[in-house]
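Quiz preparation item.
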């Protein structure tokens, strides 16, 4: 009698006749998305990858294959390292602050009941509906070093506010304050996660003598860790691609901006955009885009890898 192998090969179930009949309908309903993915994502990405190996000029529609020269040029370009540093600095500062503030506001929102609950939920989310160009213009007024609302407010406490828009040491910090304006989406996501935390867990923790902080760290955070992980990943990707608000504030008019503030506000996507549509170096801009894609991919994969240690899923 032959022994059965310890590990059997996995057998894949064949589709039934009824399932095979459904497949054309599934493809039909998915076709708008599939066509959109191919036309607006896959083809442009393939075209930009090809352009990154050329010196394509959009004005003359002429480009020669130059290999990896664009990527080699990036290594010695001081503006690439400067823009990458500014972007990473902003990301490292903004993401933890936005997550912490979102948790704080979501906790407050979770405690609001009655007829005012809907009003406050809407109020927290409304800034997300403001166009990014309008946000940049608004914060030109708020962060103005001489007549800005923020400096006028702190002056009532005897504090001289900094020149947010002209002092290179404060430019990126001012941009962080501006972007904290639009964390309403993260607040609503965390609010929904808080609503799903079983109250029995808090009651058990109180019976065991846990303080409010211990309840938060040992009950709340693990139960909303999935939502936390989601907003950390999304906010990180958005921070690395920051463009509209900063371009509106510092590059929209090019008037009255010092060289120091221009360097401090030079984010990676802004430098990419200027190479493509101001300097018309489309090949070099495409190479910049693909490097950013790889950086975002690596950071996201690291976050996913680390999430296995910290993210709790109730079904596991």
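Solution:
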């Amino acid at each position: 009698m032959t022994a059965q192998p310890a590990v059997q090969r996995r057998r894949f179930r064949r589709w039934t006749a009824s399932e095979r009949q459904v497949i054309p309908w599934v493809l039909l309903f998915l076709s708008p998305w599939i066509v959109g993915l191919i036309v607006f994502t896959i083809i442009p990405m393939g075209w930009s990858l090809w352009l990154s190996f050329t010196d394509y000029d959009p004005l003359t529609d002429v480009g020669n294959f130059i290999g990896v020269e664009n990527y080699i040029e990036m290594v010695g370009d001081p503006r690439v390292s400067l823009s990458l540093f500014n972007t990473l600095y902003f990301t490292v500062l903004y993401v933890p602050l936005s997550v912490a503030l979102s948790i704080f506001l979501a906790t407050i929102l979770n405690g609001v009941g009655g007829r005012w609950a809907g009003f406050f939920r809407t109020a927290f989310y409304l800034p997300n509906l403001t166009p990014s160009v309008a946000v940049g213009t608004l914060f030109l007024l708020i962060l103005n070093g001489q007549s800005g609302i923020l400096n006028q407010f702190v002056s009532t406490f005897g504090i001289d506010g900094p020149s947010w828009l002209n002092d290179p040491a404060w430019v990126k910090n001012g941009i962080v304050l501006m972007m904290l304006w639009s964390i309403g989406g993260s607040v609503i996501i965390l609010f929904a996660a808080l609503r799903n935390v079983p109250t029995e867990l808090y009651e058990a923790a109180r019976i065991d003598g846990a303080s409010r902080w211990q309840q938060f760290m040992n009950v709340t955070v693990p139960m909303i860790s999935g939502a936390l992980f989601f907003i950390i990943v999304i906010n990180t990707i958005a921070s690395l691609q920051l463009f509209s608000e900063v371009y509106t504030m510092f590059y929209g008019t090019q008037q009255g901006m010092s060289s120091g503030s221009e360097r401090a506000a030079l984010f990676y996507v802004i430098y990419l955009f200027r190479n493509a549509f101001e300097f018309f170096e489309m090949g070099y801009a495409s190479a910049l885009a693909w490097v950013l894609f790889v950086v975002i991919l690596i950071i996201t994969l690291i976050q996913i890898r680390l999430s296995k240690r910290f993210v709790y899923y109730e079904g596991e």
